[in-house]
Prior knowledge:
By secondary structure, this protein is an alpha/beta fold. The chain is 47% helix and 14% strand. The mean pLDDT is 95.
Amino acid sequence: MNYLWGETRKNQIMRKKIVAGNWKMNKNLSEGLALASEVVNIVNDELNDDVTVVLCTPFIHLSQVAKIVEGSGKVFLSAQNISEHESGAYTGDISIEMVKSTGAEYVVLGHSERREYHNESNAQLAKKVDLTLANGLTPIFCCGESLEIRESGKEVAYVTNQLTESLFHLTEDEIQKVVIAYEPIWAIGTGRTASSQQAQDMHKSLRDFLAGQYGQEVADEISILYGGSAKPDNAPELFAQPDVDGGLIGGASLKARDFVSIAKSF
Ligand code: 13P
């Protein structure tokens, strides 16, 4: 009963459905351009208009992939990170303004790999979220718990705290521009997907938490994506959950056919 009610509500709400491919540190420039072209061609031929596809490429690919996705109307471009500083003496870093100038419209922020290998903190991510929104781009804000936290039963407290510390300073208008990606660390690249029920439970908890802070109407507008070993064979069940609005796809986004079949899973 609950499930049916959720389904009906999901159909009425019409949140944006998004499938984003996070290439991580894969594909050299020519391989990346070939992959982007293949994705755009298949998407243009086969995908409904109601799904937004995003390619999250390494920085060096952005400006050329921008030309490939331009005009498709269905495929958009994202960076995988930005500096928390606007500009200046930060050798090797990339600013939001640079990313924007390539034509990218999204930025992945707070991926667990950046939190782990680059010690990105919730406070630093709050600054990156602000810079992204101030420049008119959409943050894809990643959150998620380790296996240890999941096994201790504290996963909801942990993930909601990530939202509190990085997002809850935003206004109602601003938070509605954020896309949230729930990526349990134990499911990333491990082949161990969260069950559709585990994903739904966390997504519902996050939406309830957002509703507590911003009200139900605002929470209902926010797309929450699932990430972690999502594949063509498990995406349909994941995306059928009332609070799962799409996916952030790692490994399976490196093959155009697999990636687009995930996007076709709604
Ligand atoms: P996999 O799909 O390879 O598990 O990666 C998920 C991810 O980290 C996407 O950002």
